[in-house]
């Protein structure tokens, strides 16, 4: 059973990754994205992913979540 904190961090990292992917796709389709917006979403995802990996390391969890970007 996973700790609630890890579950929350996993959900946040997944959400941030999905938002980044959607924003990138939007750029291909409509082109209505900005570099600043893209960088913001990249930073948000990287921050969430880093927090998740740190928490997994502290918990001794050797199963890192797959990182896709």
Give short descriptive properties of this protein:
mainly alpha; single chain; 74% helix; 69 residues
Characterise the protein shown here.
74% of the residues lie in helices and 0% in strands. It has 69 residues and is mainly alpha-helical. The chain has a domain at 1-31 and 49-56. The model has no long low-confidence stretch (mean pLDDT 89).
Range of helix content: over 70%
Number of helices: 2
| Secondary-structure element string | HH
Distance from N terminus to C terminus (CA atoms, Å) equals 27 Å
- Secondary-structure-based class equals mainly alpha
Number of strands: 0
Largest sheet entry: none
Low-pLDDT runs of 5+ residues are: none
Q: What is the overall silhouette? A: elongated
β-sheet strand percentage: under 5%
Question: Mean pLDDT score, rounded?
Answer: 89
**Cα radius of gyration in angstroms:** 14 Å
Please give a quick description of this structure:
This protein has helices at 4-29, 35-59. It has 69 residues and is mostly helical.
Write the layout of secondary structure elements.
Blueprint: H1 4-29, H2 35-59
Helix pairs in contact: 1-2
